[in-house]
Write a structure and sequence with these properties.
Strand order of the largest sheet: 1-2
Number of strands: 2
Radius of gyration: 25 Å
Distance between the termini: 46 Å
Number of helices: 19
Shape: globular
Length: 537
C-alpha cells in the first residue's frame, strides 16, 4: 500500500512552495526578472482544457503513484486525467467511463431516497416555515461545499476517494489517511446496515410479519450483495436510474394518498381524546408554521440533523468524480440534483405534513397513511432504493479496498478469477458486517445518528472549509489574505463559518444523539438483539 513510507517528495514540494513564498514576499508586485521562477510557479498549475483551475496543494501521494505522472514535485507537463484514460484504453474493465448524466443518476439514487419520508416529521417538530427555510439553506451549503470538493478533484485528478483527500488536506500525514479510512468504512457499513433493517421493515409490512425479522434481514443482505457485483459506477448507473425513478413515484403517491384519504392513521374526531397506548391526541390535524411550545433542544436538533444528514453525501463524490470521463461536467449533475432535491423534499414534506398534522405524524411518513392499501402501494415503489442505496455504499467501500489490493496489476482492470473472487468476497464481508451491526446493536437508529454526527461533521463541512483555505493559500502565497478583494474576504468568511458548522455538528449533534440513546433506554424503546419481533410500519 506504500502508505507508511516516508514521502520525501512532499517535503520537497513544501520547500519549493516556501521558496516561492519568500520570493513573492520580497517582490510582492511580481517584477522579478527571474523568468525561471515564474515558469516554476506555472508548472504546478493544473489546467483542464483551456481553463486554469489552480495550484496543487501537495504532490501525488505515495500510494497513488501507479501512473507515470512525471516530476514528483511539480508534476510539470503531465495530464494525469489523460494518462489515466490512456492506460485504461485496452482494459476489459474501464473505470473512467461515466458521463455527467450517469453521474447525475448516481447522485439522484443517493439523495432521492427513503429519507425524504422523514421530512414531514422534521417539519412537524420545527414548524413548516423554519423547516422549509432550513431545507433550502442546508441544500445551498452542501451545494457550495460540493463545488469546492469538485475543484479540489480537478486540481488533483489522481485522488480516488475522500481518504486520499483527507491525507492531502492535512499535510500528507499517514495517520490521517487511516483515521479517515476508518470513518469512511464505518459510515458506509452503517448505511448498509440501515438498509438491511429498512428492507426487513418493508417485508414485515407487506407480508403482515409472515416470517421472523431476522429471515427478512438475511434475504435483504443476500439480494443486496448480488446487486453490488457490477465493478464500475457506469454499470451501476442503470440501476441508479431505476432506483431514483421508483423512489419519486413512491413519495409522489404517498403525498397524493395523504391528500385524498379521509383521515390519517390513528385519527379520532374528539379533540379531547388521548390514545392510552400511543398518547396521540385526537381532533383534526394541527399544522403549525413555527415550533410548538415546549419543543426541547434535543428534539429540535434531531429534526434539524435529520434534514441535514439527508443532504450531506459528499463522502461519495470523490469516488464518483474519479470515474467520470470529463470531471469538468460534474457541476451539471450537481445542480440538476440539488434543484430536484429542494423541490421534492420541500413539496413532499410540506404536503404530507399539511394533511397529517402534529398529532398523527410518524417517521417514515408511510406509517401516517390511514388506508392500509395506500400504505403498501406507496411503500412498495420504494423497493429499488431500499436495495440500491446500500448497494451504492457497498460498492464505494469495496472499490476502496479492492484498488489498494490490486493497484498496478491486471486483476484491477481485467476479468480474472482472482479479481472477481476478491471483489465478491469484499462485498460479502461488508454486507456481513452490516447485517451483524444492524441486528446486534439494539439502539441502531440512534447509533446511526451518533455516527453521522461524528463523521458528517468532517465529510460534510470541515474537510471542505480546510480545502478552500489550502487551495487559496496555494494560489496566493503568504500574502493571499492581505490581497483578498471584498468578495474574496466574504468567501473566506463563509468557509470559516462552514468550519464552525462542522464543529457545531460534532459537538451539538453528538450530544443530541447520545441523549436520544439515553432517552430511548429510559422509555423502554430499545429492541432486543437478533429479535424476531416485527418492525413493520
Amino acid at each position: 500500500m506504500a502508505l507508511g513510507q516516508k514521502d520525501e517528495s512532499y517535503a520537497a514540494f513544501q520547500n519549493q512552495n516556501n521558496i516561492k513564498d519568500k520570493d513573492n514576499a520580497l517582490d510582492p508586485k511580481g517584477d522579478s526578472s527571474n523568468n525561471g521562477d515564474l515558469e516554476s510557479d506555472n508548472t504546478k498549475r493544473r489546467t483542464v482544457g483551456d481553463k486554469t483551475v489552480g495550484n496543487r496543494i501537495a504532490p501525488v501521494l505515495p500510494h497513488l503513484k501507479g501512473y507515470d505522472f512525471g516530476d514528483d514535485i511539480s508534476i510539470a507537463g503531465s495530464d494525469i486525467l489523460g494518462k489515466q484514460i490512456e492506460l485504461e484504453a485496452d482494459s476489459a474493465i474501464q473505470y473512467r467511463t461515466c458521463s455527467w448524466q450517469k453521474t447525475a443518476a448516481l447522485l439522484f439514487s443517493e439523495y432521492i431516497c427513503l429519507a425524504i419520508m422523514s421530512f414531514p416529521w422534521s417539519y412537524h417538530i420545527l414548524g413548516l416555515v423554519p423547516g422549509l427555510i432550513l431545507t433550502v439553506l442546508v441544500a445551498a451549503v452542501v451545494l457550495y461545499t460540493s463545488l469546492v470538493l469538485w475543484r479540489f478533484c480537478l486540481i488533483h485528478p489522481e485522488v480516488r476517494d475522500v481518504c486520499d483527500i483527507g491525507q492531502m488536506l492535512f499535510w500528507g500525514k499517514t495517520w490521517v489517511w487511516y483515521a479517515t479510512a476508518v470513518m469512511f468504512l464505518l459510515n458506509n457499513c452503517f448505511i448498509q446496515g440501515l438498509h438491511v433493517l429498512v428492507t426487513a421493515k418493508y417485508l414485515n409490512t407487506i407480508t403482515n410479519h409472515s416470517q421472523c425479522t431476522i429471515v427478512f434481514s438475511v434475504i435483504a443482505a443476500v439480494i443486496s450483495w448480488f446487486c453490488s457485483l457490477p465493478r464500475t459506477f457506469s454499470a451501476l448507473s442503470r440501476l441508479a436510474t431505476v432506483s431514483a425513478f421508483f423512489t419519486f413515484i413512491s413519495v409522489l403517491l404517498a403525498a397524493i394518498f395523504a391528500g385524498i384519504e379521509a383521515h390519517p392513521a390513528g385519527y379520532n374526531p374528539d379533540p379531547n381524546f388521548v390514545d392510552p397506548v400511543t398518547g396521540i391526541q385526537g381532533g383534526e390535524p394541527i399544522v403549525t408554521a413555527t415550533p410548538v411550545a415546549g419543543t426541547t433542544f434535543v428534539l429540535g436538533m434531531s429534526a434539524f440533523l435529520n434534514i441535514s444528514y439527508t443532504f450531506i453525501g459528499q463522502i461519495t463524490l470523490p469516488s464518483f468524480i474519479a470515474e467520470m470521463k470529463n470531471p469538468r461536467d460534474f457541476p451539471k449533475a450537481l445542480w440538476v440534483v440539488t434543484i430536484a432535491e429542494v423541490i421534492v423534499f420541500g413539496c413532499v414534506g410540506a404536503v404530507i405534513y399539511a394533511f397529517t398534522g402534529n398529532q398523527y405524524m410518524t417517521s417514515p411518513a408511510f406509517g401516517s397513511l390511514g388506508n392500509d392499501v395506500y400504505k403498501k402501494i406507496s411503500f412498495s415503489f420504494m423497493i429499488p432504493t431500499l436495495i440500491f442505496l446500500g448497494v451504492l455504499y457497498a460498492s464505494v467501500s469495496a472499490r476502496f479496498i479492492f484498488f489498494r489490493i490490486f493497484e498496478g496489476t491486471r486483476h484491477k482492470s481485467n476479468h480474472t478469477v482472482l479479481g472477481w473472487s476478491v471483489w465478491g468476497g469484499i462485498l460479502a464481508g461488508t454486507w456481513l458486517v452490516a447485517f451483524i451491526i444492524a441486528e446486534v446493536i439494539p439502539f441502531f437508529s440512534d447509533l446511526l445518528s451518533l455516527m453521522s454526527s461524528l463523521f458528517d461533521s468532517f465529510f460534510g463541512f470541515i474537510f471542505w472549509g480546510v480545502a478552500y483555505i489550502r487551495m487559496k493559500r496555494a494560489d496566493g502565497g503568504v500574502q493571499w489574505i492581505r490581497e483578498q478583494s471584498l468578495m474574496g474576504c466574504l468567501e473566506l468568511g463563509l468557509n470559516v463559518f462552514i468550519l464552525m458548522i462542522g464543529l457545531f455538528f460534532l459537538g451539538a449533534g453528538t450530544y443530541t444523539s447520545v441523549q436520544s440513546i439515553i432517552d430511548s433506554y429510559a422509555a423502554g424503546a430499545v429492541s432486543g438483539v437478533f429479535t424476531c419481533a416485527s418492525n413493520g410500519v
